[in-house]
């Protein structure tokens, strides 16, 4: 396989047609080697338009979803980022190229080690992986400019929104199968938030987040 041709095709045939037109984001996808963050068994599928399995029942999101989320966040060089769900470390690597510092929380110990090793091998020095339950965020180090939920939730917990700075942004994939959508929420005041629906998609659940009660009769 011609890896660079496959990378080019991913960017031009999958990502760009999905309204990812920010040239800085497209350049990042060419720079950060996605295949280096895939489990060895799936390395050859690094550029395929699909989710890739990870240990612990998690997955890497499809390339176009990762790119679109990154574009919509407009991360800047001075910003502090919290990611929940490190997965392979790939999204943290992309975020780190745009931010000052990234902390990514991973509840699965095996995945946390996998992500940390991938980031170290890729010489990403401004992103750190912590083995922790991210459902409640990281209160002791808040507030953050950007919070990224790299997976789906039934709804965004209020404590996470409170960990945003004024003007800070949180992105998550919200809802229940078969209908989920990526939502961008911006903190506009002490208790004021503005949310925008970005696009419809589906993603596996992040672990440890609350689910709505189900009533049976």
Brief sketch in words of this structure:
With 217 residues, this protein is an alpha/beta fold. The protein has helices at residues 3-15, 23-31, 63-73, 90-96, 109-121, 158-161; strands spanning 52-53, 59-60, 80-84, 101-106, 127-131, 144-153, 164-176, 179-187, 193-200. It has a single domain (3-200), classed as Vaccinia Virus protein VP39 (Rossmann fold, 3-Layer(aba) Sandwich).
Descriptors:
single chain; 217 residues; alpha/beta; Rossmann fold; 7-stranded mixed beta sheet; two-stranded antiparallel sheet; 6 helices; 9 strands; 28% strand
Helices and strands, with pairings:
Elements: H1 3-15, H2 23-31, E1 52-53, E2 59-60, H3 63-73, E3 80-84, H4 90-96, E4 101-106, H5 109-121, E5 127-131, E6 144-153, H6 158-161, E7 164-176, E8 179-187, E9 193-200
Parallel strand pairs: 3-4, 3-6, 4-5, 6-7
Antiparallel strand pairs: 1-2, 7-8, 8-9
Describe the overall structure:
The structure is a single chain. The chain has 217 residues and is of the alpha/beta class. It has a single domain (3-200), classed as Vaccinia Virus protein VP39 (Rossmann fold, 3-Layer(aba) Sandwich). The chain has helices at 3-15, 23-31, 63-73, 90-96, 109-121, 158-161, and strands at 52-53, 59-60, 80-84, 101-106, 127-131, 144-153, 164-176, 179-187, 193-200. The chain has a seven-stranded mixed beta sheet with strand order 5-4-3-6-7-8-9, covered by helices on one side. A two-stranded antiparallel ribbon has the order 1-2. The protein is globular.
